[in-house]
Amino acid sequence: LEVMDDKPNPGTLSENSERLFSFGVIADIQYADLEDGYNFQGNRRRYYRHSLLHLQGAIEDWNKESSTPCCVLQLGDLIDGYNAQYKASEKSLEVVMNAFKMLEVPVHHIWGNHEFYNFSRDYLTNSKLNTKFLEDQIVHHPETMPSENYYAYHFVPFPKFRFILLDAYDLSVLGIDQSSPKYQQCMKILREHNPNVELNSPQGLSEPHFVQFNGGFSQEQLNWLNDVLTFSDTHQEKVVIVSHLPIYPDSFNSVCLAWNYRDALAVMWSHQCVVGFFAGHTHDGGYSQDPFGVHHVNLEGVIETAPDSQAFGTVHVYPDKMILKGRGRVPDRIMNFKKEASFHF
Ligand SMILES: Nc1ncnc2c1ncn2[C@@H]1O[C@H](COP(=O)(O)OP(=O)(O)O)[C@@H](O)[C@H]1O
């Protein structure tokens, strides 16, 4: 495609020879069978129908790639919340899942706020959006098994390289029964930080990420994350963490952060194994390397991508770096591993 041709090609021959494996990334497809619309601020066009064509184009490209990706990470918000209003949630999910059937490699689905506008957590758990069956278990390490109380798991597509999917709506008022103790606990957290009548509004907040369309990580999930990262440290693995919500404040506008992003950062920063953190949610995209050398990528959202562009990427992993090959409005990025974290052969 022309869009790719005018960018520098990071995949030179020598790099290709030491390429270990690759994976696809895509975020915020938010499909709905609706005319184009706008975001809440009214400054970004949303292409509800065209998002499906963008997804189909991405799938065709991944299938055609010379080094086939091991898998694709779908970073959440697969269908738009509007589907619920039009009683089209199940139909739209089916349309999008049918598109994914063309993909020749496994897709890992993460859950975003729009999943919970359409479906309850119980529904999602029993749906095709639950890809926990793709997890890898570590024998004799029961502490690395996630509990059923949140949607998170880890897998190893290449020796010594682990992916951890996190549930950023583990603490959330979305998709959960209003009579449950957990709802009450989460509503309390939200109201303590957000006195607005409209809980989706960050207006006047010193911590503007305490809004209803965000969520957070329970202590239980963070303890599990800590245990998996401890295992990875001990076994000299590299880890990429994936979540719908970003956790590093530098990489974009802070309204989109997970509620307790600081707690997640503290866990992550107490280990050396983490090399990257991929998130969606922001639509605008962003990138930052934190002081501990972790690369934070917020992927540009498909829903706000014009029909003549694209928004997805393939990440190629090398012994000493990851190279994001972006398509359309996703920029290419070379992300070097911190020195002590490079693979040694
Ligand atoms: N500043 C705001 N004040 C009130 N409601 C808001 C505000 N920003 C977003 N919302 C509401 O929050 C929800 C999510 O916002 P939206 O921009 O659609 O986010 P997403 O990127 O997840 O689609 C929508 O229902 C939207 O109307």
TrEMBL record:
<dbReference type="InterPro" id="IPR004843">
    <property type="entry name" value="Calcineurin-like_PHP"/>
</dbReference>
<keyword id="KW-0378">Hydrolase</keyword>
<dbReference type="InterPro" id="IPR029052">
    <property type="entry name" value="Metallo-depent_PP-like"/>
</dbReference>
<dbReference type="Pfam" id="PF00149">
    <property type="entry name" value="Metallophos"/>
</dbReference>
<protein>
    <recommendedName>
        <fullName>Manganese-dependent ADP-ribose/CDP-alcohol diphosphatase</fullName>
        <ecNumber>3.6.1.13</ecNumber>
        <ecNumber>3.6.1.16</ecNumber>
        <ecNumber>3.6.1.53</ecNumber>
    </recommendedName>
</protein>
<feature type="domain" description="Calcineurin-like phosphoesterase">
    <location>
        <begin position="23"/>
        <end position="283"/>
    </location>
</feature>
<keyword id="KW-0862">Zinc</keyword>
<keyword id="KW-0479">Metal-binding</keyword>
<keyword id="KW-0732">Signal</keyword>
<dbReference type="InterPro" id="IPR041869">
    <property type="entry name" value="MPP_ADPRM"/>
</dbReference>
<comment type="subunit">
    <text>Monomer.</text>
</comment>
<comment type="similarity">
    <text>Belongs to the ADPRibase-Mn family.</text>
</comment>
